[in-house]
Amino acid sequence: MSGLQGFRPVRDITDFAEVLKPEEAEPPILSPAIRLAVRQWLVELAAEEELASYGLKPRRTAMLSGPPGCGKTTLAHHFSARLGLPLILVNMASLITSFLGGTGQNVNKLFDAVRAQSQECILFLDEFDSVASKRVSGARNADNERNSIVISLLQKIDTFPGIMIAATNRSDDIDPAIWRRFGMQLEILEPDADARFAILTRYLAPMTLPEESMELLTEVTAGASPAVLRQLMEGLKRDVILAPRYGQPVEAKAVLSRLVASVRPHAEAVMPPLWTETWAMESIAKMPWPPVDGREDSPEAS
Ligand SMILES: Nc1ncnc2c1ncn2[C@@H]1O[C@H](COP(=O)(O)OP(=O)(O)O)[C@@H](O)[C@H]1O
Ligand SMILES: [Mg+2]
């Protein structure tokens, strides 16, 4: 313990956060509208001086909302990579303590630690709703504490010198004043058919299936998040490679039935036809199959 009264050491950022390196980022597959918004933001940040001559400033804050597994974290990481900066990822829920005043102190310590960083970086505040929920009028200590955290966050957002991205699965819970403080609000939803096709293709690689089969898989996974699509395609590759070793058939219907039994969208999400409709599995039984390894030096090719 330090003997200095009121001395608050600046804690290391890694006490609160995970630092993601730019070189480890992977670009998410997004809708054209979101892709454009991201490109606009990058152009804007590069045009700081030009904008200044018109009395304008580039936006420095963004709020990403939308269901889990649709690419909020992936997008923030990709964005930091495009700027060549590390991403400081903080799960805001981890700052919550039951000690009176403790959560607010953790929020302060976090911002102190970020300010003390010598290297420029992007701050990513995940599960932002856990500290920025709507203010309530109540006399209970917990309500007062929550309200004062929201007020202090408003001031922190206004004075933060760098680029800040927040994310939430629960946009309805965010305090409206906090919501408006962000320079941009992007909603990242479940992918449409074009995006699903691209996501399925990416995560099936290096294996490939005929286009007709990819189109069917796109259709039967309507409503699924990219995270589920990835799990499905990675599971498919694993199963096709290993099924003979556990003595199971590798026909399309057999493989997909095993996958459906072990990969499942969360109950809060829309259940895609693959999990609910008998026509989906019947069509799968008839689709062109099996996947092939498209690499020239693949074990199959040699
Ligand atoms: N739009 C996307 N395109 C490609 N892959 C995605 C996309 N969204 C999510 N993923 C994959 O799903 C996983 C979870 O995504 P994540 O970015 O953590 O979602 P979120 O932060 O919205 O909950 C990641 O491993 C990522 O590879
Ligand atoms: Mg996330």
From TrEMBL:
The keyword Calcium does not apply. GO terms for molecular function: ATP binding; ATP hydrolysis activity; metallopeptidase activity. It comes from the Bacteria. Its EC number is 3.4.24.-. InterPro entries: 26S_Proteasome_ATPase, AAA+_ATPase, ATPase_AAA_core, P-loop_NTPase. One of its GO terms (biological process) is proteolysis. Residues 58-192 form the AAA+ ATPase domain. Pfam families: AAA. Coiled coil: none annotated. It is an enzyme of class 3 (hydrolase). Keywords: ATP-binding, Hydrolase, Metalloprotease, Nucleotide-binding, Protease. PANTHER family: 26S PROTEASOME REGULATORY SUBUNIT (PTHR23073). Belongs to the AAA ATPase family. This is ATP-dependent zinc metalloprotease FtsH 4. It comes from Tautonia plasticadhaerens.
